[in-house]
Hints:
CATH architecture of chain B: Orthogonal Bundle
CATH superfamily of the largest domain in chain C: MetI-like
Largest sheet of chain B: none
Strand order of the largest sheet of chain C: 1-2
Oligomer: heterotrimer
Shape of chain B: globular
Helix content of chain B: over 70%
Number of domains of chain C: 2
Largest sheet of chain C: 2 strands, antiparallel
Order of helices and strands of chain C: HEEHHHHHHHHHHHHH
Amino acid sequence: MATKGTAAKKAAPRKAAAKAAPQKTAARAKAKPEISAEKSKMVGSVRRSFAPWTDPDAKPFILYENITKRFGDFTAVDDLTLGIYEREFFSLLGGSGCGKTTLLRMLAGFETPTEGRILLDGQDISKIPPYKRPVNMMFQSYALFPHMTVADNIAFGLKQDKMPKGEIADRVDEMLKLVKLEQFKSRKPHMLSGGQRQRVALARSIAKRPKVLLLDEPLGALDKKLREQTQFELIDLQQQLGLTFQIVTHDQEEAMTVSDRIAVMNQGKIIQVSTPAEMYEYPNSRFVADFIGDINLIEGTISSVSGGKVTVETADAGKLVVNQDLKADKGQTAWIAIRPEKVSIGLKKPAARTANVMSGEVWDIGYLGDVSTYHVKMPAGGIVKALQTNATRLVERPITWEDQAWLSFSPDGAVVLLS
Amino acid sequence: MNRGASWFNVTSVVLGFAFLYLPILILIIFSFNESRLVTVWAGFSTKWYVELFRNEGLMNAAWVTARVAFVSASIATVLGTLAAIALVRFGRFHGRTLFSGMVYAPLVMPEVITGLSLLLLFVAINFDRGFWTVVIAHITFSMCFVAVVVQSRLVTFDASVEEAAMDLGCPPAKTFFIITLPIILPAVISGWMLAFTLSLDDLVIASFTTGPGATTLPMKIYSQVRLGVTPEINAVCTILIALVTIGVVSASLVTKRQEVERKRAEAAAVRADEPELA
Amino acid sequence: MAEHHDRSGRRLVLLVPYLWLLVFFLVPFLIVLKISFSQIAVAMPPYTPTFSLSQGWDGFVAAFRQLSFDNYVWLTEDDLYIRSYLSSVWIAFVSTIITLLVGYPVAYGMARAPSQWRATLLMLVILPFWTSFLIRVYAWIGILKPEGLLTVVLQTIGLLSPDEQVRILNTTTAVYIGIVYSYLPFMVLPLYSALEKMDASLLEAAEDLGCHPLKAFWVITFPLSLPGVIAGCFLVFIPAVGEFVIPDLLGGSGTLMIGKTLWSEFFNNRDWPVSSAVAVILLAVLIIPIVLFQRAQQRAQEREAG
C-alpha cells in the first residue's frame, strides 16, 4: 500500500496539472461577479449586454433546420436544429468526430446536407455553390496559397469579385494594418511564423467583409501563450467589424473565452446551447458537466423534492441538499454535480454548516502553485475533489496525505443532474 | 548508430554504385576510342561523333524519336494528370475499380503484350501505322506513369487550399488553373520528363506499332547492335546518356536549391518576432 | 466538394483518360483474346475469321463458330512454349533473389549514410533508371563478349591464360547479369525508402535491452523492411518474366524466355493467332503477382494517407 501510495502521489501533480486549465477559466469567469442592486444573483461574468436569443421576436441570422448529414453508414450530423444571431460569436464545441466541423462545412458549402435546409438571413442557401456564398472561412490548416505573397493571398477574394484595383490595394493595406503584418506584405507564406500565418489567414477571410465568418479550429496550431492572446484579439476584431462569427473548437477554454454562446455537440447532436457561464454553472447533463471543466459527480437516489430544495441520498456522502427547482420523482437515480472549487476542505468539522458535510481520507494532493486539488476518499470508496487557493505562503498545519479531512459545500453550489 | 558496421555500409554502397556505373562509364570511354575495336584503346578521338552526324539514317531516327517523345509526353501529361485528379479527388465513382486497374496495369505489363495488343487494334480498325500509332502507344503507357507521379503529389496536397479559393469566390475550373496547377506543377513537370524519357527509350512497343518511315532511334540502335558493338553506337549512347544526365541532374539541383531556400526561410520565420495585435 | 455544382467539369476530367484507356488498353486486350482463338491465314490481317460489321449478326455468329482452342492446344503440344514459360518464371525468380541480395546491402548502406549524402545517393540510383534500358543492356555486350573487356582484364591480371576467353555472352548467366543490372534500381528504391523511414532509436532500444546488433538486424530491421522487400521483388519479378531485350541481346539460343518466343512467333513466323495465345497465357501467369502487388501498393498508400 505504501509503495503504491507514493507512486500515485508522485504522479498526482502532473495529472492534476493537465486538468488545471479549466479551473483557471472558471476562476476568470467568476472574477467579476456582477451583482445587481436588487441583490438578485446572476450567473458568472457578463461580457456585454447582448442576448438576442432571449428575445422571442428576434430572428436567427443563420438557421440550421433539421439538418442530417450521412457519410455512407456514418451519421455525422443527426436531425439538428440551431439558430445563430446576427453579430453573435458562436462556438461549436465537441470532441473529434462529433459533427461540429461538418456543420461548419455545410454552411460554407463544401458539404451538402442529406436532409434539412440551411437558411442564411432568411434565404435557403442549400443550392448555392461555395464560391457564391456570402460566408468566408478560416481553415484549420490556414490553407494559404503557397505560391502567392501575403498581399496576394489577402487580395484573392477581392479579385474574384472583380473589385477595382485601387480599392483592392486599399483594402489589402487596411487588412494588413488590422493584423499588424504591414512589413510582411510581399513575403510568401512559408517565410512566416505560425502566428503570422494565422493572421494572414484571418485577414484573407475577413477581407471580403463576409456576412458570416466561419473559423475551423482557428487557434489549434498555435502554442498556448499565443493562443490565449489571440483569443482576445479575435473578440476585439469581431466587435470592431460587427460580424457574425461561428467557430469550431475542441478546446473548451477557448470556447469559454471567446463565445457569446456555446453549443456542446456529441455524436451529431447538440447536447446543450447556452452562455459559457450557464454551461459551467448549470450543465444539463453529466456529459456537459464532465466535458466543461473539472467536476465531482456523486451518484445517489432522490429522497425528496420540495420548495426549491432537492435532497439526494448518496452512498459516499449520505444526504446531500441542493437548492434547485427540479421536476423529478422520489427514488429516481440522480447525480450531484459539484465543482471542486465550490467544495471547501478543512481538518475540523465546519461548525457553520449543517447540510452537505462529509469526511474522508486525503488520498492525493495536486499542488499547482496557485491552487491545490485534494482528492479525498470517502468511506464508501468514491473520490471527491476539493480545490483550495493557496492564499498564504506558509500554513501552520498543512493538510497532508492520509489526513482525515472534512469537506462541505453550499446548497447553492451544486446541481442535480438526472441524465 | 552501428559504428562498427559502417565499413560494411561504405563498401556495399561503393560496390553497388560501381556495378551500376562501370558499364556505362566504359561505354562512354570507348566512344572516344580511335580504333574500331572496342577492347583496345588506341588514343582519344571524336571521329565517331563526326561520323554519327553524317549518318543520315541515325539522324532521321533521332529526329523521329524526339518528335514522338515530345508529342506523346505532352499529351500523356495532360491525360495522366486528369487521371490522377480523378483517382485522388473523386472518391468512389462508378467503374473506379476498372479505372484504377487500367491506370496501374500498364506499369507492370510486359512490353511485348502492350505492343502486340495495340498493333492488333490498329490492324483491326485499319489504322495506317506510322508516327501517330507510335505516339498513341507511348501515350497509353506513359500516361499511367504520369498519373502515379502526380497522384503521389496530390495525396499530400492540402485540399483545403482549393476549398479556400472557392470559399473566396473562385469557381472550380478557375481554382484548378490558378491554385492547384501551380502548386502541383513540379510533379507535373517530372511526370512529363518521365514520359519523355520512357518514350525515348522504348524499343519493344515502338517495334510493334510503327510503320514505314517511322523508325525510332532505339529501333535503329537495336538493329545495329545485333550486328555487333560499334563505336558509332557508343557515341549515340553517350550523347543520349549526357542529355538525360544533364536533364535529371539540373532538375534535381533546382529542386534541391528550392528546398534549401525554403528551409532557410522557414527557419528565419520561426525566429521572427511576433508583433502583437492591438 | 459539393458534387452537384460542377458535374460537367468533373465528368470531363474523368471521361477523357477513362475513354482513352478503354480504347487503347482494354479493347486491344479483348482483340488479343479474340485473335488467340482464330486461325492463321495467308492474308492481311493474317488470321481468320475477321469480324466485320457489314456481315451483320449472321456473319458474326458464323465467324464466332470458327473460333477455336486450337492455338492453346498447340501451345501444350509443342514443348517449346511450356519450356519458355517455365524458364521465364525460373530466370525471373532467380534474378529477383540475386537482385535482392545485391540491392539490400546497397539500400542499407544508403539509408545509414550521413543525411547530407542521402539525396545525392538517391539521385545516383535513380539516374540509370532514366537512361535507356537498351543502352545499359548494350553496354554489357562489350564487356561480356569473348574478346570483350572482361577477357582482357582477366588475362591482364593473370586469372585467364592469354589463349582463353570468357564464355558468358549468349548464355543464361549473361541474362542473369543483365536482369540484375537493369532492375537493381527498382529493388534499391523501395528498400531504401523502407529502411530510411525506420526509427534509429528502435535499434538502440533493442541493444539497450540486450540484443546483439547482428541479431537486432534480423529481429528488428529486416522485418520492418519487409514491405520494401516485397515491393522490390514484385517490381523486379513481374517485368523480368516478360523481358525481351535482355534475353535477345545477352542470351543465347539455349535461353528460352517467353517474351522472346512471342516476339519471334510474331515477327519471324508471322503467326499472329499463336503469338496472341502466348500473350494471353503470359498475362494469366502474371495476373496473380500483379494483383498481389497492386493490393500491397494500395495498402501502403492507405497507410500513408491515414
